Amino acid sequence: MPKLTVDGVGTFEVAQGKRLVKALVEDAGTDQLHACGGFSRCTTCRVEFVVGEPEKMTQAEKDTLAAREITAPGVRLSCQIQCDHDMAVKLVSRLEGSGRKDQGSQVADEIQPDPVWTEKTS
Ligand code: FES
Q1: Minimal-distance CA residue to ligand 1 atom 1
Q2: Torsion sign over Cα 92, 96, 101, 106
Q3: Which ligand 1 atom lies nearest to the CA of residue 33?
Q4: pLDDT tens readout for residues 64-118
Q5: Nearest-CA neighbor of 4 among 98, 92, 87, 103?
Q6: Which end of the chain, C or N, has fewer beta carbons within 10 A?
């Protein structure tokens, strides 16, 4: 099982292929935001990779990052990423301090919209 390390929180074993946003909430117990429910619309699920940033990227993530002009190195949308290898991330978008009433809508087990895989833009 892949290991997910969350900076300042700990290291957790995660089911192979689990959506990163769900692992952050269910396995690591963090207050990671996911306002749109994992549809690559809101960008509140973004995290900063420390180790293991995936080379592949869904077209939806690529389009959303470009539209929102999110270009910082290592910043990715956790709803569009599967835990299929060891990775370490920093939380950069949490409920605490956000002023939101909750973390966001329910997130499905499968990546939505149906993923079209591409290479990440560097
Ligand atoms: S973009 Fe909204 S939860 Fe990922």
Answers
A1: 40
A2: positive
A3: 3
A4: 999 999 999 999 999 999 999 999 999 999 999 999 999 999 999 999 999 999 9
A5: 87
A6: C
**Ligand 1 pocket test target in 19, 24, 41 with most atoms within 8 Å of CB:** 41
Q: Is any atom of ligand 1 closer than 6 Å to the C-beta of 65?
A: no
Question: Tell me, what's the pLDDT at 101?
Answer: 97
Write down the residue that tokens 């292929």 correspond to: 17
Q: Which numbered atom of ligand 1 lies nearest the CA of 43? A: 1
Atom of ligand 1 minimally distant from the CA of 107: 3
Range of the domain at 25: 3-95+108-119
For position 41, which CATH number holds?
Answer: 3.10.20.30
Number of domains in the chain: 1
Residue 78 inside a domain? The answer is yes
Is the CB of 28 inside a 6 Å radius of any atom of ligand 1?
no
Residue 101 resides in a domain: no
Q: Give the tokens for residue 94.
A: 């949490």
| CA–CA dist 7, 70 (Å, integer) | 21
